[in-house]
Amino acid sequence: MAKPRTLFLLLFTFYYHSSSSSAAYTVGVNYGTVANNLPSPSQVASFLKTQTTIDRVKIFDTNPDILRAFANTGISVTVTVGNGDIPSLAKLPAAQSWISANILPFHPQTSIKYIAVGNEVLATSDKVLIAHTLPAMRALTSALELANITTIHVATPHSLGILSSSEPPSTGRFRKGYDQRIFAPFLDYHRKTKSPFMVNPYPYFGFKAETLNYALFKPNSGVFDAATGNNYTNMFDAQLDAVYSAMKRLGYGDVDIVVAETGWPSVGDPNQPGVSMENAISYNKNLVKHVNSGKGTPLMPNRTFETYVFSLFNENLKPSVSERNFGLFKPDLTPVYDVGILRNDKVISKTSSLLLLITRNKTSVEVINFSSLLFNGFN
């Protein structure tokens, strides 16, 4: 009877050691809803709060059910003004009405952190949208001030298409004609309001066959920037430093940068380059670890960048296979893969539910179910 007790002690020690040593990082996620099989917002909010270390979500609208669900969770929310609504919000009365309808019913029970005005507006090349984006941001900021709300900042996410040059990072500059006319006023607004410049860096869209490891945070020889003497060993840092170089060129290197979107799909169309479960794990897991490290980038050392991974769920109504498979979680709330954001006990319950234990009996091998032993004891 002594041997089973000894065996149980060894088993319990293994369990305790594994759960206590599992790394857990905080990160934001983009909570998209282009799907017809997702759990309810209340289920999502409860899941994120109790079973993950995700502490920020970004949504692509102002869905009231989602905003209500995240009330009193401690998870902050970024809401989004649809691109088509931007022109109408360039005047203060309309902005005040928008704040009254979409922010005041939920604030402060729901911790709304940012209002994102549109998404990648400059990439649309729509002159009306582009011309009205900054006026809408200013009007919404004024409306928040008039409502005595000082904790919500207004910004707009940009694709890296805003850059005309990015390699090496020290050459980073905004597109000609957009720099002084568009981005200098944007950055001046951000400096004055202490709001961040939001960007969507996606190494997934920028890699070539020879730079795949560089894009995935895997070992590689790097890219040397002769102007600064920096050697870049991952594309994410290089993309952020290219944006920083463009900002600094205009005199706004002091404005904070927030990574509003970045990610890697786990499944793609047949023979689609670079798309696999292994690569998605490599990119997202190393990304989460990297942005939590506080190392920053070569041009922005010792900084922790607020980062929102794309995306929370696999969304089955997206148009292509890869677009449907950017999620960290399946609609049933099980992980597609783990990037270090599951709480420790959840990591163990999903990855170590069965152990094979070999007894000292030379003639037999006994398979013991870990869960039943732990919770029901030895019989």
UniProtKB/TrEMBL annotation:
Q: Which Pfam families match?
A: Glyco_hydro_17
What InterPro entries has UniProt attached to this entry? Answer: GH (IPR017853), Glyco_hydro_17 (IPR000490), Glyco_hydro_17_plant (IPR044965)
Task: Name the keywords, alphabetized.
Answer: Disulfide bond, Glycoprotein, Glycosidase, GPI-anchor, Hydrolase, Lipoprotein, Membrane, Plant defense, Signal
Q: What class of enzyme is it?
A: hydrolase
The listed locations are: Cell membrane
Query: Whose protein is this, by species?
Result: Populus deltoides
Q: What is this protein called?
A: glucan endo-1,3-beta-D-glucosidase
Question: Signal peptide location in the record?
Answer: 1-23
